């Protein structure tokens, strides 16, 4: 495994709690040498098949969901558990369309009323040119699909018009969009206007002409008091009955229908027309969009994701693209290593189990599998797991330099020592990214200081490598040309492309960069701030152990709860050690906790507490409230135990023989020792940190 010099420097300054000698070895020689399996809240490994097995994989149907290409100009973000604002574009790729934009717009406007020019002017006034253009493209694509035989199944694509703060402007924009594009609906979400396909429009087009369907939905949206709408005369009684049934089933709480014979009605001319009018008391008090209440209850599908040598955000981005949703529709309990084989529970919103099963063959090409697929009632949240199980092979075991003891004895001694005494519960290197120039904690610090432009530049800082990704980043820092950088940035770099799409739309200003950060879901934005907090915690625990060792001293913070296995315990369980308790050795070192930075934590009342204040001052955060309102980020903080122990440890030493033919007829048989080790760790603990304590070796 290639070692990062910067990380060796950063992590060699971290300390150990045990006193054995340790040994050298190589981890992650291949992804299969490092297997991570999530343990759910019930204590079960998530890679175990559930009672509902996956059915035989079917070929991918040629449906709309497959052809949907996500333009990740903006992704959604989540603030809290019940609020969501979708700021993204979902539309078919231009390369899949065989008509020019003007040809499509001609088709869309066929059924438009004479007042079309007025509505176009309204949209042009309220929307910027780019958004207006994207809306027209989105409408063209949706109209083409609605006119085709393709069924809109699963999650429908959406397009955001952005946040409109003025209530009256929002109302005008809602109406203007629906009047120009009656085959679309608009939904308001926290000042955000989101445009979706009107599925009822296509259903009605099966019963009446396209022109009638367009004018009917315009009539519904206009809400003119005492107005009526009349369908074309119809001689077929069964067909009229079907139209009555559709209108009353879908909009019966708003309108009523009646059939009236034409004036020249006769046996030879049995034409009857259906007339629609608003119910007297309903439309007068109606304020919201006709379609806001029609959204179906969200569908949630749970599954286990197996991935190999793949970054989690890249995996989620690929799944989102194939399923026609956005990355923030996925929820998970924790992040997993890239260079490993990992199994973790996930939940995707707005996707049925059947739809997820249908993409399995496609995602296998990206070294991913999904199984244990089933319907559930809600999404997952970060930390909603008991821990992780690890199966690890450490190869090429060797003694430490100048250590002549028996290697097997050294290995067994080290494992037993950590098994009994534990390890320092540092956040692992993967928490901070593997860059040499910029780490995720530096991005997080810039965000905490509300330095949005600086945070974007840090995120797009290239490494000293000559590859397409770093060439694109270098070009951006030299030119700040987001559009040109997009043409250089590889498709698989989902996060970078999402950010660049937004910068192209909003510009490289402070406000533009704020909008660009909203192209990341909430969980990803908060990740960078957590990285900074994690770095400070690592430094704090090193200082604590260097200053006081394994003694529990006055002013320390201890957790009073039993079997604390996560970081989310309240202040009421955290106790400040008194002078008397120090003298009586009331508490053990395993009970000591340190705060992870946030607005709802207390600091130790000793030298460690003073150290925290000095660090905050050093980083310009002495007045920081750990809230970033412009990005809707709140960081309450938490407490983390300074020591942890692995559970269910088992291990086996294995000899491997390599035959080296250096000369003809001469064979040199070299025997190398490998260690197969398995153990469980509590949530938010790092196997690489545990191995570091065992081996006394920085990776």
List the helices and strands and how they pair.
Elements: H1 5-12, E1 23-26, E2 34-39, H2 64-67, E3 68-71, E4 77-79, E5 83-85, E6 89-92, H3 101-108, H4 116-126, H5 129-147, E7 159-163, H6 167-180, E8 184-189, E9 192-197, H7 199-205, H8 210-222, E10 228-230, H9 237-251, E11 255-261, E12 272-278, E13 300-308, H10 312-323, E14 330-332, E15 341-349, H11 353-357, H12 360-364, E16 368-376, E17 387-399, H13 407-421, E18 423-424, H14 440-448, H15 452-459, H16 468-479, H17 482-488, H18 494-506, H19 510-517, H20 522-548, E19 557-559, E20 574-576, H21 579-583, E21 592-596, H22 607-618, E22 627-628, E23 633-634, E24 638-641, E25 643-644, E26 647-663, E27 666-682, H23 687-695
Parallel strand pairs: 2-15
Antiparallel strand pairs: 1-17, 2-17, 3-6, 4-5, 7-9, 8-9, 10-12, 11-12, 13-15, 13-16, 14-15, 17-27, 18-25, 19-20, 19-21, 21-24, 22-23, 26-27
Helix pairs in contact: 3-5, 4-6, 7-8, 13-23, 14-15, 14-20, 16-17, 17-18, 18-19, 20-22
GO cellular component, one term: nucleus
Biased composition (Basic and acidic residues): 92-116
GO molecular function, one term: RNA binding
């Amino acid at each position: 495994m290639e070692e990062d010099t910067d990380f060796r420097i950063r992590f060699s300054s971290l300390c150990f709690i045990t006193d054995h000698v340790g040994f050298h070895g190589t981890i992650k020689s291949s992804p299969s040498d490092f297997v991570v399996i999530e343990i759910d809240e019930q204590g079960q490994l998530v890679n175990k098949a559930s009672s509902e097995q996956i059915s035989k994989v079917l070929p991918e149907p040629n449906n709309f969901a497959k052809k949907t290409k996500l333009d990740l100009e903006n992704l959604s973000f989540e603030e809290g558990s019940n609020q969501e604002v979708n700021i993204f574009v979902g539309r078919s790729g231009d390369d899949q369309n065989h008509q020019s934009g003007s040809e499509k717009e001609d088709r869309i406007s066929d059924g438009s009323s004479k007042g079309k020019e007025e509505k176009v002017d309204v949209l042009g006034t309220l929307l910027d040119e780019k958004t207006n253009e994207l809306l027209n493209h989105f409408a063209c694509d949706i109209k083409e699909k609605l006119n085709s035989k393709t069924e809109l199944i699963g999650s429908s694509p959406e397009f955001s018009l952005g946040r409109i703060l003025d209530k009256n402007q929002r109302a005008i924009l809602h109406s203007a969009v629906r009047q120009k594009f009656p085959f679309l609906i608009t939904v308001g979400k926290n000042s955000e206007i989101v445009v979706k396909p009107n599925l009822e429009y296509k259903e009605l087009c099966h019963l009446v002409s396209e022109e009638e369907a367009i004018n009917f939905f315009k009539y519904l949206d206009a809400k003119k008091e005492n107005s009526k709408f009349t369908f074309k005369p119809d001689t077929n009684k069964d067909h009229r009955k079907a139209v009555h049934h559709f209108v009353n089933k879908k909009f019966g709480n708003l309108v009523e229908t009646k059939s009236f014979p034409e004036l020249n009605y006769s046996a030879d001319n049995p034409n009857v027309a259906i007339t629609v009018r608003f119910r007297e008391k309903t439309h007068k008090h109606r304020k919201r969009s006709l379609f806001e209440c029609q959204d179906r209850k969200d569908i949630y599908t749970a599954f286990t994701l197996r991935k190999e040598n793949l970054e989690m955000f890249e995996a989620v981005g690929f799944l989102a693209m194939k399923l026609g949703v956005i990355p923030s529709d996925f929820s998970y309990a924790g992040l997993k290593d890239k260079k490993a084989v990992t199994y973790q529970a996930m939940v995707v919103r707005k996707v049925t189990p059947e739809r997820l099963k249908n993409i399995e063959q496609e995602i296998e090409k990206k070294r991913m599998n999904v199984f244990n697929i089933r319907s559930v009632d809600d999404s997952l949240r970060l930390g909603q797991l008991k821990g992780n199980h690890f199966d690890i092979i450490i190869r090429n075991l060797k003694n430490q330099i100048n250590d002549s003891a028996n290697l097997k004895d050294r290995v067994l001694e080290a494992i037993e020592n950590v098994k009994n005494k534990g390890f320092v519960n540092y956040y692992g290197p993967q928490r901070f990214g593997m860059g040499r120039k910029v780490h995720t904690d530096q991005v997080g610090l810039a965000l905490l200081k509300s330095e949005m432009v600086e945070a974007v530049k840090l995120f797009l800082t290239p490494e000293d490598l000559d590859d397409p990704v770093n060439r694109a980043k270098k070009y951006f820092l030299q030119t700040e040309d987001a559009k040109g950088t997009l043409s250089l940035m590889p498709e698989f770099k989902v996060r970078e492309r999402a950010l660049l799409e937004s910068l192209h739309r909003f510009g490289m200003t402070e406000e533009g960069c704020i909008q660009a950060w909203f192209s990341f879901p909430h969980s990803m934005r908060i990740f960078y701030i957590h990285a900074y907090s994690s770095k400070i915690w690592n430094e704090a625990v090193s200082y604590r152990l260097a200053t006081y060792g394994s003694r529990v001293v006055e002013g320390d913070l201890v957790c009073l709860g039993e079997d604390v296995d996560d970081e989310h315990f309240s202040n009421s369980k955290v106790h400040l050690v008194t002078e008397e308790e120090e003298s009586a050795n009331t508490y053990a070192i395993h009970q000591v906790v340190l705060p992870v930075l946030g607005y709802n934590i207390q600091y130790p009342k000793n030298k460690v507490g003073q150290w925290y204040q000095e660090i905050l001052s050093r980083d310009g955060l002495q007045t920081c409230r750990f809230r970033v309102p412009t990005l809707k980020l709140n960081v309450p903080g938490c407490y983390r135990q300074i020591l942890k122990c692995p559970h269910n440890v088992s291990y086996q030493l294995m000899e491997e023989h390599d035959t080296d033919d250096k000369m003809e007829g001469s064979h040199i048989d070299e025997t190398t020792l490998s260690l197969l080790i398995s153990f469980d760790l509590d949530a938010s603990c790092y196997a690489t940190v545990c191995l570091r304590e065992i081996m006394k070796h920085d990776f």
